[in-house]
Design brief:
The chain is an alpha/beta fold. Helices cover 43% and strands 16% of the residues. It has a single domain (4-178), classed as Alpha-Beta Complex (2-enoyl-CoA Hydratase, Chain A, domain 1). It is built from six helices and six strands; from the N terminus they run E-E-H-E-H-E-H-E-H-E-H-H. The chain is globular.
Length: 182
């Protein structure tokens, strides 16, 4: 069973975290699959937007502590560096990323959701109203319409100019990293 399901249609890549028995906790196999999928999407100029979601009503419970295999400080540092590599690629992507967050979003899962340009939350386990008030969520939708709304946002953003979106996105991120309001 693949830990990451990839569906590509109409210029939109949907990446579905697929470890529902563990609330889609990230293990090394899923991290490797995410890295490869993000690099492929980055290289494919026909891809105009990405949706990231979790299988069976959970986004991502964070890192799978049973699969971390961290035996010493160096191994822990290498695991963190590995995660930073694929997360950095996603962060620097010049296409919109939509996070369809249903259910839990803990640890790395919450960080992954925060990397998206647009978040769509449901009100299960995570207080969606508070997330929206804090500016973490773009909008709140009913659980039944979550994935359809995320696809709709992706379709809308996929029709924007990739060059303009990429320049604006990179400019904003670099300013935020430097503490500059852009």
């Amino acid at each position: 069973m693949s830990t990451l399901l990839i569906n590509i249609a109409n210029g939109i890549g949907t990446l579905t975290l697929n470890r529902p028995q563990l609330k889609n906790a990230l293990d090394s196999s899923m991290r490797d699959a995410l890295r490869e999928a993000i690099q492929s999407i980055r290289a494919d100029r026909s891809m105009h937007a990405i949706v990231i979601c979790g299988k069976e009503n959970n986004f991502c419970a964070g890192g799978d502590i049973n699969s971390k295999n961290v035996v010493d400080a160096q191994a822990g540092r290498e695991r963190i560096d590995d995660s930073h590599e694929w997360i950095g690629t996603l962060l620097d992507l010049d296409r919109p990323v939509i996070a369809a967050v249903d259910g839990v979003a803990f640890g790395t899962g919450f960080s992954l959701a925060l990397l998206a340009e647009d978040l769509v939350f449901t009100a299960r386990e995570l207080d969606a109203d508070e997330a929206k008030q804090l500016g973490v969520a773009f909008e709140i939708v009913h659980q039944q319409t979550l994935h359809a709304r995320a696809q709709q946002l992706a379709e809308h953003l996929a029709n924007t100019s990739p060059a303009a979106f990429g320049c604006q996105d990179v400019r904003s991120l670099k300013g935020k990293r430097a503490g500059i309001d852009v």
